[in-house]
Amino acid sequence: MSETVLEAVRRHARERGGHLAYRTPARTWTFAQVDEASNRVAQGLKSLGVGAGDRVACLTKQTVECAVLVLGANKVGAVCMPVNWRLAPPEIEYIVNNGQAKLMMADAAFASATGKIKTFITEEFSSWYGEFDARDTGYQPDAEETALQLYSSGTTGLPKGVELTHRNLRVAMVEAVPDAIGYRGPPDVMLNVLPTYHIAGIGVALLTASKGGMSVLYPDFDPAKAVAAIAEHRITHSFLVPAMIQFMLQAPGAGGADYSSLRGISYGASPIPETVLVNAMRTFKCGFIQVYGLTETTGAISRLAPEDHDPEGPKKPLLRSAGKPIDGVELRVVDAASRDCAEGEVGEVWIRSAQNMKSYWANPKATGEAFVDRQPDGLGWFRSGDAGFLREGYLFLHDRIKDMIISGGENIYPAEVENALMQHPAVADGAVIGVPDPQWGETVKACVVLRPGVSATEKDIIDFMRERIAHFKCPKSVDFMETIPRNPTGKILKRVLREPYWAGKTRRVN
Length: 510
Description:
There is one protein chain. This protein has 510 residues and is of the alpha/beta class. Helices cover 29% and strands 27% of the residues. Among the domains are: 160 residues, ANL, N-terminal domain (Rossmann fold); 97 residues, GMP Synthetase, Chain A, domain 3 (2-Layer Sandwich). It is globular.
């Protein structure tokens, strides 16, 4: 059995402690420094009474500090909960309270959103943990202990805590995903510009450390800096959402930059226009790998290989595919009666893998609804909520069983947005859908029926909602209607609402 992420980082600190693990705009981190810092964090957490099973939250753009907190928490059996810093304060408060976090590490810019929880400012965090002993606690977590808790919104609009175990992280970040994306460890260098609260952001940071390789990390995505970093740091790999790829192609000088070190760019989390993909392949001149996965599956579970990216040849139709399952993953597509669909028939995608989450934190009902035929060892079929079909072993994603909108890699659930929309005094009825967008894959549109005799403009609606929920969840456009289509039981017919905007589009999700 392979090492856990925690064991692998400990070993690299012993065997190659002077080698670089991370590089940020502020400093470099060797493996020895990462291990020492996480040891001190662990001792500091112990002094505050944080122990096995406790949660510690972080609200930060600083990926290395987040990774150090993850490792430090694991060294006392605790669990780090990265929180989406783009959320509104009430949303952050809900997550922190739901997770029963004992403390929070937060960037100074976000400190006002942390509420009453004991908070350490990220910029001062090293001064705090630097006062403690650098001795390793020696804690060896069980494979089924929770290692990381990330929050994924649900169809009810309330976020759910996704519990990922040490086994989940080992299988995904030490074994399957590195093989899938071709990351071998040294001398490979990963460019990571993804946020800490995404499985891809924190997951890739842990992946490279577990393999003994290096990551170059930026707290914010700047297309020009990302392009320049490739040549400056001899980047070999990166994982990007499609909007990032598009913005990098538009950066000044992107067409003539040095990409000779690049071996592979992995992409996913939202749709990518075929023109953008083809332009990127011509510009970056490296292998492209499409991946599909969820927070609940510890990231990627399928892969469209570089050799299947053939825009001018017979494999061109595969550009719309999410590829084949990676090692250790089984896929099924089933109908409403849970029967396997025939090849090419659309149904719900089910996933069985040791990467599947342990559970939704403190939510046995949602956990039970998410799995089918779960066995005592934890393995079972996870219901993805995505609709697709299989053809010759390749998965094609067609639409969504659930109504989730993916915009620029962010998951947005209409129920949550609709709750805010219906608070507007001029709105009699409303619905929220995702509509195509060339940059973000999808953007949020509100469909609104106004109260009789009351007026409101598109700007009125959007401004009202931006005061209540995170800006990325708010509608970018509003259509005013006479009625919202519903079935006889009153359920909104989202497919009917979406159809005019998606007419002629063959690729609806990624």
